[in-house]
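Table S2 (continued). Query chain:
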Amino acid sequence: MTVEQKIEKALEGLRPFLEADQGDITLVEVTKDKIARVELHGACSTCQMSAMTLKAGVEESIKRVAPEIIGIEAINALPVT
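Corresponding output:
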């Protein structure tokens, strides 16, 4: 299983929780530096809590199935203020 497939599997497990808040997430790419770049959709793309959700929930879930990933970055997350 490729690292991208592992990440997709983790995102599938998270998707019902994100969809419950009218949001979603897709994997954009895995960089050569082992950063998973994702895009947030729907309510998640405009939510002030998206950065915290990304760090606490999404990153942890991805690293659990793909420990080679060193970080996660949302290409459209709002900055924490």
